[in-house]
What does this fold into?
Amino acid sequence: MNQDDSSRVLPFPWSRAAPPHSPAGAKDLGIGRMAQRLGVGDTHLNGHWCSRCQGIWYGLMLETECPACGNRRG
Ligand SMILES: [Zn+2]
It folds into this structure.
């Protein structure tokens, strides 16, 4: 396993430290479907990068699908 592969699926480093709003220059893509369905609070959400949307969406750690475009590859 190399660093590049893992960085595609894992949340970016800022996701734990930053409150749920967009870092500068990135779009806010909303909340993942699973987190919406479960009504998970902000404190349990992780930021996920979507390279297709060039933005960040928030969802459960194990969620992989961008709520804006359906991209699962980060
Ligand atoms: Zn997307």
